[in-house]
Design brief:
Blueprint lengths: L26 H9 L7 H11 L4 E4 L6 H14 L9 E4 L3 H14 L7 E4 L8 H10 L3 E4 L1 H9 L10 E4 L2 H6 L3 H9 L6 E6 L4 H10 L4 E4 L9 E7 L5 H9 L8 E4 L3 H13 L4 E4 L5 H12 L5 E4 L14 E4 L6 H8 L9 E7 L4 H11 L4 E2 L35
Parallel strand pairs: 1-6, 1-7, 2-4, 2-5, 3-4, 5-6, 8-13, 8-14, 9-11, 9-12, 10-11, 12-13
Helix pairs in contact: 2-3, 3-4, 6-8
Length: 421
């Protein structure tokens, strides 16, 4: 197993199976893992945990589904157990959404069942709106605090939050938090913490703003990279070259008569477009609701609940829904536009075809998005099949990213509804 330094390329590979016992955890923590049937560490756990236990800051690139949450929770639980309790908070975890904060809190409770280590989730909206309960946890101390940036800043601004006892500061889905505009909040939170705090940063991608943030917050970090996985083989991937004005009609045509599609996510890269897409879909008789960081929290909660229970068949969302949220039985994912980062395509398409189910991923390519889509195909190492427009919809621009896509045209005709062999 390679040990990295800040000057190394960001790439680590687990060379052999590592058990949790090999990692030297406390026996009470191992009992909890054993009761859950966890024996072997995932690659990101095997690579990150030894660095964390040795007190190193971490910059880890790992996507949802790799076991990254346990990669930071397990060593933190172990280190908290080995210190004398002082009735104050030891670990602060900041994540982009209330859904992810709740999941981290629940996983901390499950993994630490036999340890006596407690946790609390701090977020806005819904039952998280119990301000007094959150205030009590922040003032009296909880071993682990899993919080969203906005709600945590609101408490900090009230003047009663004391983070002088925090030893571990974790940023989960750091790239998504920056995409959602939380950079200033993260910096503000970081200034409330002791200078010697151990900082662990987990991100699915490594754009320039994450590199800058890591330089500002991390001290001599160990770097771990788990290569991004490709979409599941049982995801049928199709693309349409289409003009922006025809996208809603294309969705309506593709979904017409397709009653087997009970749960559909439509991803938009622009928050400001979510409401307009929802309005257009509803006008065309397609029942839908929207979720984005710009929408009211209660509206987001209601929409997600109705989508999960099947009341609403279509959700229009930004990439806030592409990670960290486990919704079962997604039949179809539509990229209303091409995501700016090729790896975001993987996350979006990964919402469908889970647990050996099948699913369909469709991407709309406008003329301005052709170079973006070409980068996705380069990441995948193969072209994604292009389909002709259904009858009655104008053919889109020719897919020719190196030529600017000026001509109208086709692509190989393909019936994405046909059952795969």
């Amino acid at each position: 197993m390679k040990e990295s330094t800040p000057n190394d390329p960001i790439e680590d590979k687990a060379e052999k199976k590592v058990t949790f016992e090999d990692l030297g955890f406390n026996y009470d923590l191992l009992d909890g893992l054993d009761s859950m049937g966890f024996i072997n560490a995932t690659p990101v756990q095997a690579l990150a945990i030894p660095h964390i236990l040795n007190g190193r800051d971490i910059m880890a690139i790992a996507q949802t589904g790799t076991g990254k949450t346990a990669a930071f929770l397990l060593p933190v639980l172990n280190m908290i157990m080995e210190t004398e309790p002082n009735g104050k908070s030891s670990c602060l975890i900041v994540s982009p959404t209330r859904e992810l904060a709740k999941q981290i809190d629940l996983q901390a409770e499950a993994l630490g069942y036999f340890t006596g280590v407690g946790s609390v989730a701090v977020y806005g909206g819904g039952e998280g709106g119990n301000w007094d309960q959150q205030k009590k946890a922040l003032t009296s101390g909880a071993d682990i605090i899993a919080a969203t940036p906005g709600r945590l800043i609101a408490h900090i601004n009230m003047g009663y939050v004391d983070f002088s006892s925090i030893k571990y500061f974790i940023l989960d889905e750091a790239d998504r938090m920056l995409d959602m505009g939380f950079h200033k909040d993260i910096v503000t939170i970081g200034k409330q913490l002791p200078e010697d705090v151990q900082t662990l940063m987990f991100s699915a991608t490594m754009p320039g703003n994450i590199r800058k943030l890591s330089k500002d917050l991390l001290k001599d970090p160990a770097q771990v990279n788990i290569a991004i996985s490709k979409p599941a083989k049982n995801v049928l991937q199709v693309a349409y070259s289409v003009y922006d004005k025809d996208k809603i009609n294309l969705i309506s045509t593709l979904l017409k008569g397709r009653k087997s599609y009970k749960k559909i996510i439509i991803f938009s890269s622009a928050k400001k477009s979510v409401n307009s897409i929802v309005a257009s879909l509803n006008k065309n008789g397609l029942k839908s609701k929207g979720i984005s960081s710009d929408l009211d929290q209660k509206e987001r909660e209601t929409a997600l609940k109705e989508f999960t229970n099947g009341t609403i068949p279509i959700i229009v969302a930004t990439d806030v829904l592409s990670r960290g949220i486990d919704i079962k039985n997604i039949n179809l994912v539509i990229n209303y536009d091409v995501p700016p980062d090729p790896e975001d395509y993987i996350h979006r398409i990964g919402r469908t075809a889970r647990a050996n189910a099948t699913g369909v991923g469709i991407t709309f390519i406008s003329e301005k998005d052709q170079l973006r889509f070409a980068r996705i195909e380069k990441l995948l190492g193969e072209p994604i099949r292009k389909s002709h427009m259904p009858e009655g919809i104008q053919p889109g621009p020719e897919y020719a990213p190196n030529k600017g896509g000026k001509k109208r045209g086709g692509g190989k005709k393909f019936n994405y509804h046909k059952k795969r062999k």
